[in-house]
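Researcher: Next sequence.
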Amino acid sequence: MKQLELSKHYRLVEQAIQILEQHSKAVEPTLTALAGKLNTSPAHLQRVFTAWAGISPKQFFHCLQKDHARQLIQNGHSNLSASLELGLPSSSKLHNLMIKFEAFSPGEIKTHGKGLKLTTGQASSPFGPVFLCTTGKGINSLEFETATLPYEAWHREITALYPNADLVESHDDMQLLADRIFGLHNRKDTVTLNLRGTPFQLQVWQALVHLPAAQLASYQQIANMLGKPKASRSVGSAIAKNPVGYLIPCHRVIQGTGELGQYRWSSARKKALHIWEQGLVNNFNP
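Model: Next structure:
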């Protein structure tokens, strides 16, 4: 399924998620009732939702329950520990892209990008429009469109961060890159991230890459894995400043209570990312 079609389907799924979330602590809505609220037919909703997420709206509703999230966080703890101890990029075979980290040099930061060539653009993804920025060394930014972050605002932020860089806009190149990132066919591909952050932020972001797909961990668990059990708040601050969505999977970090919590690119998208990965896990592990 092409990314543009997936992106269109995501809009319907996003609305369905919001309605299901409103009912997550009450009676489960029927497929007919849910379709009625979305002004579509039950058959169309079932088909689109299942094609996009890999599971049905009914299965998704059950995944929203707090007890399910708590179970996942418990499972994620052991998987995360094993991954970090072995130095593996992931314990999940769903990670189709190996992630490599490269930090900005102090000189590049000090000169505000002088001598750097940055390529920016907007692309379609299974989760709606996505904005990408790359340097000659790798991906520098990946953010999803939100009501408060249209492409123009994101582009201004990139320009302000690197006023001395040579910025080139290429939506076609960024679409090709998005297809690589969100596709499942290049499972031996490698992606490099060229990140600007403090040493602690880089450490947290790298730890997130070790979280297996469809598994969750709390801020405290991440702090424990870094050997800094008292730094859970600092971990939360670093996660909030994650510049590369999806590839650095901050959507897999939730509150210690088992609640999925907020997400800088909308809480509905966080649930969609998680449930999409759950569908992939089910498909790869029948």
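Model: Strands lie at 97-103, 117-123, 130-134, 139-144, 166-169, 189-195, 217-218, 253-254. The chain has twelve helices and eight strands.
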